[in-house]
Amino acid sequence: MTEMDAAWDDAASEIVRAGQRMDQRGWVPATAGNISRRLADGRIAITRSGGHKGFLTSADVIEVDIDGRPRVEGQRSSAETLLHTQLYAADPAIGAVLHGHSVAGTVLSMVVRDAAIPLSGYEVLKVFEGQVTHDTTVEVPLFENDQDIARLATVVAPHLGRMPAGYLIRGHGVYVWGADMATALARLEGLEFLLACTLERSKL
Ligand SMILES: CSC[C@@H](O)[C@@H](O)C(=O)COP(=O)(O)O
Ligand SMILES: [Zn+2]
């Protein structure tokens, strides 16, 4: 096996395991969610469209370029590929992107009518990029859902580089990222925890 093949296999395994983890947590119901990883050589590995993300195999991971085009003609990458590649294009430090549809994120995004959900005073805020204290507010932007992903990407674009905790799409789900898969998964777990806390507090 070449070094390039081994690197691809590692990335595909990380994606498969991330899907299993997200499924265990209930964040990818039915065929929801998508997962990608940028390799050191710049190749982008992403889940194919459809299929359950808890039951992925490496055959469900395909290569796309930075503009979101599958390298192999006829392969169908995630319907939301452009939301991944725009993050990679904007920041060379990003190495993994995760998208899930949790109950807390979906419900909160439909109840809150503001353009962002503020998260304040939580110790777990320190899981997000650049955060060193609980004594702060991190805003999670809320974008309107759109089946036209290219158009949705243009709405997200002006916010790139200014979303330490990721973002929410209304009635749809969350996007988070990190330098590697472990960091992206930790941020997703942190964000889901904080969204669940926000939802619980709204019931008191
Ligand atoms: C269960 S429908 C969910 C899809 O419409 C979409 O939002 C999603 O997250 C998964 O799409 P996919 O094309 O498999 O990456
Ligand atoms: Zn989705």
UniProtKB/TrEMBL annotation:
GO MF annotations in UniProt: aldehyde-lyase activity; methylthioribulose 1-phosphate dehydratase activity; zinc ion binding
EC class name: lyase
Domain of life: Bacteria
Binding residue positions for Zn(2+): 99, 101
Co-factor binding details: Binds 1 zinc ion per subunit.
Pfam family membership, one: Aldolase_II
Domain Class II aldolase/adducin N-terminal: 13-199
Reactions catalysed according to its record: 5-(methylsulfanyl)-D-ribulose 1-phosphate = 5-methylsulfanyl-2,3-dioxopentyl phosphate + H2O
Cofactor(s) in the UniProt record: Zn(2+)
Keyword Transport applies: no
Keywords of the record: Amino-acid biosynthesis, Lyase, Metal-binding, Methionine biosynthesis, Zinc
Pathway: Amino-acid biosynthesis; L-methionine biosynthesis via salvage pathway; L-methionine from S-methyl-5-thio-alpha-D-ribose 1-phosphate: step 2/6
EC identifiers of the protein: 4.2.1.109
A GO cellular component annotation in the UniProt record: cytosol
Alphabetical GO biological process terms: L-methionine salvage from methylthioadenosine; pentose catabolic process
Purpose of the protein: Catalyzes the dehydration of methylthioribulose-1-phosphate (MTRu-1-P) into 2,3-diketo-5-methylthiopentyl-1-phosphate (DK-MTP-1-P).
Family annotation (HAMAP family): Salvage_MtnB
Family, similarity comment: Belongs to the aldolase class II family. MtnB subfamily.
NCBIfam families: PRK09220.1, salvage_mtnB
Name the UniProt record assigns to this protein: Methylthioribulose-1-phosphate dehydratase
Organism per entry: Brytella acorum
